[in-house]
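agent> call fold_tool(seq_1)
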Amino acid sequence: MPAEWAPHSGTLLSWPSNRETWPGERLQRVEKVYTEILRELSSCEPVHLITANETADATARRVIEKHLPENAPVIIRRIPGNDVWARDFGPIMVSRKKNGKTEYAVTNWGYNAWGGKYPPYDDDDRVPAYISETFGLTRFDPPMILEGGSIETNGNGVMLTTESVLLNPNRNPHLSKDEIEEHLKNYLGQEKIIWLESGLAGDDTDGHIDDLSRFVNERTIITMTTDDPEDVNYHVLQENLARLKAAKDQHGRSFEVVELPMPVTYVEETTVDGSEYVPASYANFYIANGGVLLPVYDPKHDDAVISAFRRYFPDRRIIPIKSTDLVWGQGSIHCITQQLYGT
């Protein structure tokens, strides 16, 4: 599995239309965030945009015509879909070198909407097969539930994940920890799995790694922390930090671990599933060709975090995206994007 900073052929995105995720005026508010994401992302690489129904299709086309440059590389794919979380239901792609050329394939893991929380999810579960068929890519079908937001790789054989997701009985109750590791190693080419504990309050995925800790290069991990013992996430983040500081790669080498501050995560009005918190996190960034889309939420920390990302991605444009309305749906920029290769 390539690291996210490897060159993409495009990004998979799905236009928002699910009224259960975005009730009332929430849909119009998140459409504005999507418009900015679509404009910025399409300036970096092609975007394959799923429109799940006629209304979503018409809205997306209107936005593209009005707000994007003429001939912006946005390819609309009118196929059935259930929601926007392309990171989790989209194809997790792998590559290999053969005869001096790079070949790509789709791994089509099972998807059950984070333990069956939000049915129906059958249309989203079919998207990896659609991608492999559309682009003539080899497809592998691992016998396991796995969401893209639950794993993070440095592209050199090391993977981060959380026990609260991959060991949760709502995913793969028939698999042991060792068996899960074997699937990640066999299908995604990993050599070392680093297990963190659990995730943020308000994260209805049970604790995805892409809200917690991410690689910015092979040897450096950024991780969310707080020094406030009263913060709802304090104990979990301190435990995760301790595990990262003790972690070694497959060659016995430690990582550079960089701490980033938590933005405000409390919401005055509860989310759709009744939570008082949202998983707002600077770790939910997306690395595109030539740019990094960075969710921002909190004037207290935003500028310092933007500066930090400029240090770690000097050859990419850092693109801050105000994401408060997006994360109210309990996911942010990384959650709605999935990088593609060979398309």
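agent> call fold_tool(seq_2)
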Amino acid sequence: MVAEFYSVGAGNIAITLTPGDSGVLKVILDNEEIYDKKDENGETPTLTRMKELKAIVKAKL
């Protein structure tokens, strides 16, 4: 997932990974949560969802 976001940012994006417990996965962009695995029924993002998230990142850049 990090590589996907980095490919959108082309070096204009800073990514920080912070370990969590019990499979926690959140994506926060400019202090706004754009993805939370817990809110998505514990599912890893599908290809379609990943494209949506990449579009959000691209729009912010």
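agent> summarizing second result for user.
Helices lie at 2-9, 47-60. The first strand starts at residue 26 and ends at 29.
agent> awaiting next instruction.
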